[in-house]
Amino acid sequence: MSRNIFVTNLSGHDQEFEVHGWNNNQNITVGPGQTFTINAPDGSSGAIIALHDGHEGEQAEITKNGWGGNDFIDLSNIVGAGGNMTVQQVNNPATRKGDPLFMQHLNDAWHRADAGWRQALELCVHRDNNDNVTRIDPIKDWPALENFVRTFADGKTYIGVGAWNGSPGNANDNNQSSAAQGNTDIQVTYNDGDASPPTSQSAPSMQSIEPPQHDISTAQVGGPGIILRNHRNDPQTYAFYNNYWNGNGTAGANFDNPDPIITVSGNDSVFVPLPKSFKGRVQRGTLLPATWAEFQISADNDGAAHGDISLQQGCDGAATIASTDGSGRFNGFQHDIVSGAPEAAVRYKPDGTRALDTTVGNWNGGPNLAAIEWENEQVGQRRAYIVGGSGTDDVASANKCLAVDFY
């Protein structure tokens, strides 16, 4: 059996988290006011760690359905802090761990600290130009910092290393590892301000994504190419476009010469062999706007296939792209963002199909700002190219074969 871990970002900015133990150990970025859902099988353990300028900070440590059928959760600042985080079982505040105002309490303590404290902590407490604390280094590396944090957070969060390797640890830290109540969904909440969780959680976020599962027993895989899956009930046609030319970070997009064009039955997959020289995309049909899965079969630098999902020339449905070499890499999104989109973000295809308009512009007009805003809210640049440039995770597969799923 599996439960969900809801990671909610209440801050006003994108927040990146390391994920250990789930999500193929891939980092996630959660948009402001958004929630990311992680599937957590019974018996699994891991951690959700907030990152601050590349440094690990506060972390929620979780074991699902552990000893006695209970979840075990704690909130730790052993490896640092730069924001506020709490963890609890969904709708059960009695199980909450963590100080929802940790950074505010830390900053207050710093401003009250005498010269002795300040001298001892000068190298591990990082501040802005106004002497406000922005981040602290790993507490486990600084005994003085551990003593300082205990002056305001003792018993609220894991501060020391606890009972470990023959050491009894600190009793208040050890109590942080106490069992929760049964086996339920877990809520992790981050904020720059108060990280008390939402009062109610019931539905998974639209940003949730599960690793694509592929039953390709009927697909004759043989060499470089794409495993193409149609998740709709009716047959769908997909067009492959090889770029006219490729440069250093640039390409001559092909809009008028698709080859091949493939029809895939409903809820079925096929293997599409392609030359190693292929650098381009696949989309649903030949009309724009359309979601693009962009890829190359054999990169010049490492010989692997690389790909991503792009919404720059529109969106006519969700798509994911995944490795097939066992590395577990994937990206994209799986939820419908077209049907509920504001009309200002919509452009209908020539055949009357509803889609989201281009975010970069083409012969039909310039960038659609409403589409950009909507897609950033619903998907985010980490999952798919919305405005180009950077910020979208690349998916690589060493065997020169990627799996592309259209939903």
Explain what you see.
The protein has helices at residues 102-112, 115-121, 143-153, 171-174, 369-378, and strands spanning 2-9, 15-20, 28-30, 35-41, 45-52, 55-63, 72-76, 84-89, 92-97, 125-127, 133-136, 186-191, 225-230, 236-242, 245-246, 251-252, 261-264, 268-273, 279-284, 292-296, 305-310, 319-323, 330-333, 346-348, 354-356, 395-397, 401-406. A six-stranded antiparallel beta sheet has the order 17-14-19-20-21-26, with no helix packed on it. A five-stranded mixed beta sheet has the order 4-1-12-8-9, with no helix packed on it. Strands 3-2-5-6-7 form a five-stranded antiparallel beta sheet, with no helix packed on it. It is elongated, with a radius of gyration of 24 Å. Helices cover 11% and strands 34% of the residues. With 407 residues, the chain is mainly beta.
In short:
The chain is mostly beta strands.
What is the overall shape?
elongated
- What is the percent of helical residues? 10-25%
CA radius of gyration:
24 Å
- Number of helical elements: 5
Number of strands: 27
Unreliable residue stretches: 200-207, 216-220
- Could you give the order of strands across the largest sheet? 17-14-19-20-21-26
Structural class: mainly beta
Strand coverage percent: 25-35%
User: Termini distance?
Assistant: 25 Å
Mean pLDDT: 88
Report on the biggest sheet. Answer: 6 strands, antiparallel
Q: What is the topology?
A:
Blueprint: E1 2-9, E2 15-20, E3 28-30, E4 35-41, E5 45-52, E6 55-63, E7 72-76, E8 84-89, E9 92-97, H1 102-112, H2 115-121, E10 125-127, E11 133-136, H3 143-153, H4 171-174, E12 186-191, E13 225-230, E14 236-242, E15 245-246, E16 251-252, E17 261-264, E18 268-273, E19 279-284, E20 292-296, E21 305-310, E22 319-323, E23 330-333, E24 346-348, E25 354-356, H5 369-378, E26 395-397, E27 401-406
Parallel strand pairs: 1-12, 13-27
Antiparallel strand pairs: 1-4, 2-3, 2-5, 5-6, 6-7, 8-9, 8-12, 10-11, 13-18, 14-17, 14-19, 15-16, 19-20, 20-21, 21-26, 22-23, 22-27, 24-25
Helix pairs in contact: 1-3
